[in-house]
Amino acid sequence: MSIQFEEPLGDGYGVVDTFPKDFGYGVEEADIEDSPAPSDSKPRILLMGLRRSGKSSIQKVVFHKMSPNETLFLESTNKIYKDDISNSSFVNFHIWDFPGQVDFFDPTFDYEMIFRGTGALIFVIDAQDDYVEALGRLHLTVSRAYRVNPEINFEVFIHKVDGLSDDHKIETQRDIHQRANDDLADASLEKLHLSFYLTSIYDHSIFEAFSKVVQKLISQLPTLENLLNIFISNSGIEKAFLFDVVSKIYIATDSSPVDMQSYELCCDMIDVVIDVSCIYGLKEDGSGSAYDKESMAIIKLNNTTVLYLKEVTKFLALVCILREESFERKGMALWAPLLSYFI
């Protein structure tokens, strides 16, 4: 389905719960005993942190299109939940959500098996709470995991920062960063690297942070980045993203810096395209897909900016930002099939 918009979009336009129920990710599985063996080829991402730090809310908002306000009614996680994210050849992994009360010293907890098959460990810290206990748990968790599997990517989400002022955000990040790294230095673990992100489920920061985490697990990332660099250098495009449509995680972008406003525009465009396709793109009996090989959209904003979206694969979209004068170069549309060939 091809869509073209020329009306200006107002500031703050956003759609949260836009995907049809059958367009999401796989069924959530509740028991660790039902999980595959550690030899499973899919990377594993662990979500850890203290109780009520926001782990389950993050998972539901990013991968199950839950409205942030709905997460207020989620019950606290009391056992390990596994989510099989396998709708895309790139965003293709397991997410394990751990309850905050996990005891690494419990003999029934086989942490070596879990950490051995892990690609990334995300530790969530509630920035609005006293995080001294969280820092202690962070140190225990990453030090144990590192000794089992030093190849794990360790990510720290300083979460719920929507309630903090900009100065408080910066100070909190600096303090957590300093304390966490001091603890590692005291334990002679200077080689263990922690990455820190300020996140909230009420804006796009959580999607961008998860994008950075997922990109580290994609072996094809250098090739995709190089391809996008060639693309923008030959087309007059200012910024290009390769998105996983369902989660709005961008699995690759060109080498120019990513600013939050551009990323938000591209996320909003995906929401608009899916919303309109669900209304006008399906057959009369409701069959069909809201996103398929015919999906393409052009949105012209009132500041001479053009947003361009083109289907690349069943679950991936190329989303570009360019100036209206550059848009006249029609050869741009030919690059989506070329990207598909390399993927």
Automatic annotation (TrEMBL):
Organism classification: Eukaryota, Metazoa, Chordata, Craniata, Vertebrata
Keywords on record: Cytoplasm, GTP-binding, Hydrolase, Lysosome, Membrane, Nucleotide-binding, Nucleus
Gene Ontology BP term (one): cellular response to amino acid starvation
Compartments where located: Cytoplasm; Lysosome; Lysosome membrane; Nucleus
Predominant location category: cytoplasm
Top-level taxon of the source organism: Eukaryota
Stated name of the protein: Ras-related GTP-binding protein
Task of the protein: Guanine nucleotide-binding protein that plays a crucial role in the cellular response to amino acid availability through regulation of the mTORC1 signaling cascade.
Gene3D superfamilies tied to this protein: 3.30.450.190, P-loop containing nucleotide triphosphate hydrolases
GO cellular component: cytosol; Gtr1-Gtr2 GTPase complex; lysosomal membrane; nucleoplasm
Catalytic activity of the protein: GTP + H2O = GDP + phosphate + H(+)
